[in-house]
């Protein structure tokens, strides 16, 4: 919710990643003139549409060739044809016909866990220029005025966790939910509601620097407690691109360390959100499955992976609950840091299994459209053109299924890649993408 944010909202770290392009590739004898059809969602309108538009062949430049490089099985000869399901990072052409890519803007977002391991989501306003009425995590663009600078374009650390990303995550959480992840005398800051709301407005309007305001109340941003949990890089087919650092933040379990009002989120007065609520990841996913709320694929994927370790369970005594919540958090922290990250034989055979969730970078790429239900199958292993060829990759083992429509995505589901390919009778070749 930075004061420099343009009218076309970019408050949520996910705003660009959610406009995933699902495409079918029609092959011809000449790959340079092969026709490609893209099914995309509009980003500049409150009504999400699904136009089908033609895309011309990409120019024969080094950048374009790099983006068109084939994926293949480790057992497939280098000159063999790529399997139909192999994802090819789409080529992006500017108006003048060049292959220059829009630069990804730095942003940060927080998966905030309450003392009972519920997760905070914000409900976007109906009139939002993008993702109207969707539920998102708190977050937004890095603002140099408040947060400091990130490394320049071309520097590998631009796409790594750093001080500016961390301060941005804390500031955006405060601006958007009123929850201040800052400490004073070793405890989270507690402040009167009137003072808190006035500070949110001043910081959002850039009338005072976030760091200066913290210093004025004798507090320090609790950036050390932020736990990196994946980075999302917008696909090249989207005009506005972002490199978004995701974090986990675990509010203390003990209530004496956190005032009740500290963990009761408030909306931003309708500027960007109409509600800010905690619920278990399972409850959020169930509402999305029932069509009660809108979750775009990245939010759904993160809630699904985090929800495998926290949330749920039967209520018990205070002591039993505290013990259960702590055990869940320990499981989650092990999951974030341990490798291999895959559980299946196919997943473990892929290089992405050696990259911990704290370091994974995901730039969704369509594999194919399912013949049965018309949902796109999105691969999550590609890290985007900026990090292609590096050791930063995403998650090969899982895919996301989704169907885009006028009211947003439906039928969103996280599945094991191999199960989906078997169900759709996809060929065995190409199942191990060569990165």
From TrEMBL:
<dbReference type="InterPro" id="IPR000086">
    <property type="entry name" value="NUDIX_hydrolase_dom"/>
</dbReference>
<keyword id="KW-0460">Magnesium</keyword>
<feature type="domain" description="Nudix hydrolase">
    <location>
        <begin position="103"/>
        <end position="301"/>
    </location>
</feature>
<dbReference type="Pfam" id="PF00293">
    <property type="entry name" value="NUDIX"/>
</dbReference>
<dbReference type="GO" id="GO:0046872">
    <property type="term" value="F:metal ion binding"/>
</dbReference>
<protein>
    <submittedName>
        <fullName>NUDIX family hydrolase</fullName>
    </submittedName>
</protein>
<dbReference type="GO" id="GO:0016818">
    <property type="term" value="F:hydrolase activity, acting on acid anhydrides, in phosphorus-containing anhydrides"/>
</dbReference>
<keyword id="KW-0378">Hydrolase</keyword>
<keyword id="KW-0479">Metal-binding</keyword>
<keyword id="KW-0464">Manganese</keyword>
<feature type="region of interest" description="Disordered">
    <location>
        <begin position="53"/>
        <end position="100"/>
    </location>
</feature>
<dbReference type="InterPro" id="IPR039121">
    <property type="entry name" value="NUDT19"/>
</dbReference>
<dbReference type="InterPro" id="IPR015797">
    <property type="entry name" value="NUDIX_hydrolase-like_dom_sf"/>
</dbReference>
<dbReference type="GO" id="GO:0005739">
    <property type="term" value="C:mitochondrion"/>
</dbReference>
């Amino acid at each position: 919710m930075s004061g420099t944010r343009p009218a076309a909202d970019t408050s949520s770290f996910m705003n660009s990643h959610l406009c995933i392009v699902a495409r079918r590739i029609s092959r011809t004898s000449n790959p340079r003139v092969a026709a490609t059809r893209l099914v995309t969602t509009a980003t500049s309108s409150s009504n999400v549409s699904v136009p089908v538009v033609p895309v011309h062949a990409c120019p024969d430049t080094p950048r374009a060739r790099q983006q068109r490089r084939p994926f293949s099985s480790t057992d497939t000869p280098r000159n063999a044809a790529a399997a139909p399901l192999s994802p090819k990072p789409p080529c992006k052409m500017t108006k003048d016909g060049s292959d220059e890519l829009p630069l990804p803007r730095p942003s940060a977002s927080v998966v905030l866990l309450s003392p009972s391991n519920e997760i905070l989501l914000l409900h976007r306003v109906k009139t939002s220029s993008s993702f109207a009425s969707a539920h998102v995590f708190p977050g937004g663009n890095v603002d140099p005025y408040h947060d400091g600078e990130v490394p320049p374009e071309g520097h590998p650390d631009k796409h790594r966790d750093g001080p500016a990303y961390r301060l941005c995550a804390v500031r955006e959480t405060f601006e958007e939910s009123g929850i201040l992840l800052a400490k004073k005398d070793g405890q989270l800051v507690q402040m009167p509601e009137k003072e808190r709301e006035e500070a949110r407005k001043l910081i959002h309007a850039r009338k005072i620097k976030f760091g200066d305001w913290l210093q004025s109340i004798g507090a320090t941003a609790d950036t050390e407690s932020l736990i990196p949990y994946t980075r999302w890089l917008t696909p090249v087919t989207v005009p506005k691109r972002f490199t978004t650092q995701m974090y986990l933040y675990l509010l203390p379990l003990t209530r004496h360390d956190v005032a009740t009002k500290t963990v009761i989120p408030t909306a931003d007065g309708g500027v960007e959100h109409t509600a800010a609520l905690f619920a278990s990841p399972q409850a959020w996913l169930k509402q999305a499955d029932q069509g009660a709320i809108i979750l775009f694929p990245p939010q759904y994927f993160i809630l699904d992976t985090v929800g495998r370790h926290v949330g749920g369970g039967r209520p018990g005594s205070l002591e039993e609950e505290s013990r259960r919540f702590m055990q869940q958090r320990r499981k989650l922290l092990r999951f974030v840091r341990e490798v291999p990250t895959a559980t299946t034989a196919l997943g473990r055979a892929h290089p992405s299994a050696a990259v911990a969730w704290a370091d994974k970078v995901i730039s969704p790429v369509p594999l194919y459209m399912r013949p049965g239900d018309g949902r796109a199958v999105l691969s999550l292993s590609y890290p985007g053109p900026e990090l292609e060829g590096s050791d930063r990759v995403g998650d090969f083992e899982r895919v996301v299924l989704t169907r885009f429509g006028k009211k947003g995505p439906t039928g969103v589901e996280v599945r094991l890649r191999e199960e989906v390919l078997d169900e759709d009778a996809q060929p065995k070749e190409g199942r191990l993408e060569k990165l």
